[in-house]
């Protein structure tokens, strides 16, 4: 009976540990600590649903806000969707940015949260820059000017975050300065 109880307890602990999301800071990026080479949303549906439920019950949960914004960041990166001017992914990145800003405004003190915020702004700058590449056939000049202003704004926000990160994380300061260019 003791052996059976120990096996059940061990399996519950293993399942619980596997279900949690673990983020690690590696150099100047934040990534999932699960051994995978790239992110696929299908792999994390249960964790994303769980975070969404937590945010419905408690919208000021800073950890859930940070983790959910991380998943929005990963859903909007280049491996997930290489087309820069995709409106769906821009909307997801904007949702993630709102979440991480809310977490930071609620006094979340975590270097990973600031890195996520900087990366979200950087991705948004890239995505809005995609509108200026060669889409004059698709959009009028007024719309392209609006997107250029968005790109500039998010690039400036990303630079501000990277400057702050360079001061806070001296070991990776060079990496942050490189991302400012």
Structure in words:
The chain has helices spanning 2-19, 45-57, 62-75, 87-105, 111-129, 131-134, 141-168, 173-179, and strands at 23-26, 29-32. With 181 residues, the protein is mainly α. It has one domain: Serine Threonine Protein Phosphatase 5, Tetratricopeptide repeat (Alpha Horseshoe). α7 (141-168) runs antiparallel to α8 (173-179). The model is unreliable at 9-17 (pLDDT under 50).
Topology:
Layout: H1 2-19, E1 23-26, E2 29-32, H2 45-57, H3 62-75, H4 87-105, H5 111-129, H6 131-134, H7 141-168, H8 173-179
Helix pairs in contact: 2-3, 3-4, 3-5, 4-5, 5-7, 7-8
Signal peptide: 1-19
Keywords: Signal
Protein name: DUF4294 domain-containing protein
Which CATH C-level class is it? Mainly Alpha
Which sheet architecture does the biggest sheet show? Answer: 2 strands, antiparallel
Strand order of the largest sheet: 1-2
Strand runs, count: 2
Give the oligomer, counting copies of the same chain as homo and different chains as hetero. single chain
Provide the structure class: mainly alpha
Q: In the CATH scheme, what's the topology name?
A: Serine Threonine Protein Phosphatase 5, Tetratricopeptide repeat
The coarse silhouette is globular
Low-confidence stretches: 9-17
What's the total helix number? 8
| Helix share bin | 55-70%
CATH architecture: Alpha Horseshoe
Following the backbone from N to C, one meets helices and strands in this order, namely HEEHHHHHHH
Distance between the termini: 63 Å
Count of individual domains: 1
Average pLDDT works out at: 83
């Amino acid at each position: 009976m003791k052996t059976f109880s120990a096996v059940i307890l061990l399996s519950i602990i293993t399942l619980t540990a596997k279900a949690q999301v673990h983020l690690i800071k590696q150099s100047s990026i934040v990534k999932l600590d699960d051994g995978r080479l790239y992110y696929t949303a299908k792999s994390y549906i249960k964790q994303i649903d769980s975070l969404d439920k937590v945010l419905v019950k408690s919208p000021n949960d800073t950890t859930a806000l940070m983790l959910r914004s991380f998943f929005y960041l990963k859903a909007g990166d280049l491996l997930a969707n290489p087309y820069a001017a995709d409106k769906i992914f821009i909307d997801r990145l904007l949702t993630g940015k709102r979440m991480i800003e809310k977490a930071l405004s609620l006094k979340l003190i975590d270097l990973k949260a600031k890195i996520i915020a900087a990366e979200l702004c950087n991705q948004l700058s890239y995505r809005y820059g995609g509108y200026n590449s060669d889409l004059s056939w698709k959009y009028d000049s007024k719309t392209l000017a609006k997107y250029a202003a968005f790109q500039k704004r998010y690039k400036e926000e990303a630079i501000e975050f990277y400057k702050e990160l360079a001061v806070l994380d001296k070991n990776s300061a060079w990496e942050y300065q490189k991302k400012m260019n």
